[in-house]
Amino acid sequence: MAGIKQLAGQTLWYGVSSIVARLLNYILTPYLTLKLSGGSYGDMTLVYALMSFLNIVYTYGLETGFFRFSQREEFKNDLYNTTSVSIITSTVLLTIVLLLCASPLAVITNVADHPQYITLAILIVAFDSLSAIPFAKLRQDGRPIKYAFVKISGVILYIALLYFFLSVTPRLAAADPNSFFAVLNNKNFGITFVILANVIQSAFVLLLLWKEFKDFKWKFNYRLWRELIVYSLPMLIVGFGGMINETMDRLMLGWMGVSKLEIGTYGACYKLSILITVFIQAFRLGAEPFFFKHSTGENAQKTYARVMKFFVIVISVMFLFVALYLDIWKYFIQNPELWKGLKVVPILLLANMFLGIYYNLAVWYKVTNNTMSGAWITIGGALLTIIVNYIFIPRYSYVASAWATFFCYGSMMVACFVWGQKKYPVPYAWKKLLAYMAIVVMLFFLHKWLTYVWGNTIFSIGLATAMLLGFILFVINVEKREFQKLPVIGRFIK
Fold first, then answer.
1. What is the mean pLDDT of residues 374-399?
2. d(Cα 368, Cα 420) in Å, to the nearest integer?
3. What domain count does the chain have?
4. Structural domain containing residue 177
């Protein structure tokens, strides 16, 4: 229980940083959908999809390798130095190559008229990759407060810059048409300003991590690096496949002639599943070092099973919190022409629930050094994503992309569970967990049907609240003994 308490505490702090960062970005959704056209929002969606792929290439699985090898005493002194030298060297070389290829990448990304988007995006990814190992060190050292401070500071700066570029600049230009601000006040600069603000943010974050960044020495242990690469490269495939699953749909929508408006619609509505993804991200940040630290313990499998139970309970509650209140959440998208995509939000919520469970299940191939198994699972998911999108996008547009995400993450979850139970059995209470997930889905459909019959906003909100609270009380009653063991919360469970 002490281990789970520690994980909960760290997840809370990582969650604070992730939630605040994502929430602030979430608040930006109505602002950006108001300031940018649907087509421009589509361009932004495509550029950030490309950045997700580049992030994986730049770090090539070294973060996970860092946590794995931090448990080996013979490498502790050289680990940070070797991973830092590797990341810095590869980042510099890769950035030079990609900057020379900015125009072809703009064509591939379907933003051929704006190669500057790609140039700025490459700089963002470069700065972020240089920050990756310092952030990993903070997580490994159990310093979530510093981690949270740096992340939140970066986001606050980003928002301030966006407001200046998109709101203050037009006012200054109007006050003095001959000023420098009048030059900046160009509608065609909208997306450029968004990405430029992100460049400055990433550079600022790196400066805040300067102490961790400069602590490494230019020492390189080739034997360690070779073992790191052998372990980490399959994680590159995992990460790359994961990004295919997460972002390829938006790129394929562009390649297959779907309008920028529809891509923007999908991108904006995708963000409404953010509350689940925020928790998943926060959990991963705390769980990855936690899983490795406890992998040699006597009750490691039981600990993993209990972590999974609490995880599923939390994401089930979050599913209801978003899905039942969609009529309220939609107002975060200020452009009403994008609301037509709301129908895909429950599908994406479920898909991300599957993804979160998969991340939990994936502990077996990480702690047993079977990272290639994870690569094969992810490759299978990526192929399914591509096939479903290719076949169904021409007919169903972004709705096909949502279902492709659902089936991809669902299949990965099942494959990882079945394979993992053969290689590294963990006593998951899978029947109970499936029941919880089935109940929240049924509650969603019941709410949808009842509000269709009685289409009243007050009734909808009241019913949603009753269902949400009812489910929470039901789970507390079923898991009473588990909750009683928890710190703080346990005191209130009788």
1. 88
2. 10
3. 1
4. 2-492
